[in-house]
Amino acid sequence: MLAVFDAIRGMDYLSLFFRLLIAALCGTAIGMERSLKNRPAGLRTHILVCLGGAVAAVTGHYLYLGLHLPADITRMSGQVITGLGFIGAGTILVTKSLSVKGLTTAAGIWTVGIIGIAVGSGYYEGGILATALVLLTQTLIARLDKRIQASPKYTLTVRYNEKSTLGEVMRRCGEQHLAIRSFHVQKDPSGEAFFIAEITLQGGEATPSQLDGIRQLPDVVSLSLQS
Prior knowledge:
Alpha-Beta Plaits; 7 helices; 6 strands; 16% strand
């Protein structure tokens, strides 16, 4: 623990002020980066989530240490972590091509809430360090992620008869280290099969021989791969 924060680890008004202020600053730092990238959840959302987590943690401590009630000081914080899932879900979008966007923002909101809980509990070092690591992940690591995603893409077209076959196709793609970026399913207009799925793959080296396991599935009528 850093000695510089020892004076504000108590439950007095000065400590309360600094806990909420530091939580707001952590939310501001992360929210600013999201706003600059025009993400669904921006500056105000991150500040409010971080403050909410801090207030929940402070309230739990106050009920137990201040009012001496037989309360579990971690229960309110636990409920906040659970509830953040609903907020994060609101930032996740599914495009017309069935690709998913907003997962990073949703994960960031969840993390910001926990940072608020850490700061509200007086664990300033953990909250500030986590904020720095989140910013590092969303900036420098994001560049590395883009390079990884720049690997070749392939379109796998599968005609099949049973709905459950699509799940098996995806599982076998995963076994070949082929990441599924998006997929689109419709009824097969050619009449060769009941369904046709166009799956965008990325990563690894997709070759026809790699897909023999998919081709041999009993309900797969035909399969083609285009780079």
